[in-house]
Amino acid sequence: MTTSPHRSIEVPAGHGKAVRLSAGQAVRVVNTHGTQVVDCWAWNAYNLNEYMCMETTRVWNQRLNPVMGDTFVTNERHPVLTVVEDTTPGVHDTFMAACDRKRYQLLGVRGYHRNCCDNMFEGMFELGVTPPRPNLASFNIFMNIRVQPDGITLHTLPTVTQPGDYITLRAEMDCFVAFSACPQDIVKIQGQGDNTPKPVDIVVLSDEIWPIEGTRTWVPDAG
Ligand SMILES: [Zn+2]
User: Fold this and answer.
1) CA 213 to ligand 1 centroid distance, Å
2) Ligand 1 centre and the CA of 2: distance in Å?
3) Beta strands of the chain (E only): which ranges?
4) Which UniProt keyword terms apply here (predicted)?
5) pTM score > 0.90 for this model?
């Protein structure tokens, strides 16, 4: 069986998928309908206790949220993914915890509601891989969380992406990357309109080379 250099996978609305990338490969996340928030996690392919970490990434880049060219690092402070393309207005989030069962209980849901944490496991289980624990600190692609003028208050808003907008993440190490097309249908985060979760597409890119180095860790100026 030949492997296409462009392997496209649909993430059904409200579900999860995962891929394994070798260093240098990339994955493009396409907001097919333009309205969908996508939660993202990554792990060192050889050590699932080393995971993409939002806290260390904010230190590394000295930014609240990543922009084009920024690198995500792990809890071991090793580069894992770099943003090499972004056709969106550049609005993504690293602050909001991934939704889980308890979040929906707190929102008043009785019974089971699909959620990003379970979707993360769903996607990884399909690859035969079991992450050691849920990680609430996801990279929330296309999610629109605005810091208010007081500098400390957050405002949750719908996505600002257009249909077909995408972001591409290059692997800096061999890694697993999981995605959840967020099932959130109570808090209004899913674009304009009826807040209905929609499918997205992920595309594994194997042969592209981007003239982007990624970021090195920030260190304060001496003196
Ligand atoms: Zn979610």
Assistant:
1) 31
2) 35
3) 6-11, 16-21, 26-31, 38-44, 47-51, 71-73, 79-86, 139-141, 144-147, 154-157, 165-171, 175-181, 200-205
4) Methyltransferase, Transferase
5) yes
